[in-house]
Amino acid sequence: MTDNKDQVLACIDGSRSTEAVTDYAVWAAQALAAPLTFLHAISNPHAPAKTDLSGNMTLGGREKLLEEMVELEEKRGKLERERGRALLADVLSRARDRGFDEPAELLRNGDITEVILELQDAMQMLVLGKQGKQGKDGDAVAMHVGSHLAGILSMIHKPTLVTPLEFKRPESFLIAYDGSPTAYKLVEMAANTPLLQGLPVHILMVGEEKQGNWDKIQAANTKLQKAGFDTQVAIRQGKVDEAVSMYIEEKNIDLLAMGAYGHSPIRYLVLGSTTTKMIMKANVPLLVVR
Q1: What's the structural domain count of the chain?
Q2: What is the pLDDT of residues 215-227, one digit of tens each?
């Protein structure tokens, strides 16, 4: 990975999300005119199973067994690296087929969350799938959200695009807005980023239809209109995840953007169990900004 701080970093792991992650990463990098790097992280090899080597086994027998176990772990590590290189080769080929000529690759050892945190200063956006490799084939996607996702979203300080299982080029987006400083920061980002330029935007607040809330949402609306966006605003009541999901379906929204922190129930879309509910329910990518 180069020292360029404008990278789009896409995490791939061979799960069902990999193709969509690849396609959304290409879309984002092309829109941002940014370099694109695909990352595959290999977790540290599992420690050998605890085995009782006492009893009647001779010292020489125990030593031979330990040597065989070490050799087996080395073979597993080698196979994982070979698998990682093959996976990255496939992903780079797919990216080139979609018009991105010079994607880069990065194969790293270590926990994916730790690797991402180490690299975040060298990226402008992170792209990853909502289902990790631990998801089981045949199970409803709603039952499997990547095991590292919540931790990554709570710690990463760069915009993060969480992808569904299938790619659809965004033609509209929704901002889940609560009037907080973080939510307005999201509005400012949306107004200025080439990623969302030219897309119609819906601004949704979940809460009471009172003048104070209309004033807050109008401030966001004015900012985006001045930036040249075609806007629609709405206030809906109910549970946040349900109201947002229903609005996405009703308006055929292609991308949901929201802040990671706030002072309303929208906060818990990312910080609490509602995060999982929102990601499970939405069939659109989720752009999270802190």
Answers
A1: 2
A2: 999 999 999 999 9
129, 98, 96: which is closest to 14 by C-alpha? Answer: 129
Tokens, residue 283:
């069939």
Is the pTM of the predicted complex or chain greater than 0.90? no
Number of Cβ within 10 Å of residue 166's Cβ equals 11
Per-residue three-class SS string for 32-68:
HCCCEEEEEEECCCCCCCCCCCCCCCCHHHHHHHHHH
Separation between Cα atoms, residue 153 and residue 213, nearest integer Å: 27
- Six-digit token string for 180: 């907080």
Cβ proximity of 32 and 194 under 8 Å: yes
Backbone angles phi, psi at 260, to 5 degrees: -80, -25
- CATH of residue 45's domain is 3.40.50.620
> Do residues 77 and 181 both lie within one domain?
no
Q: Could you tell me if 37 and 73 lie in one domain?
A: yes
- 124 closest CA partner among 4, 7, 289, 1: 7
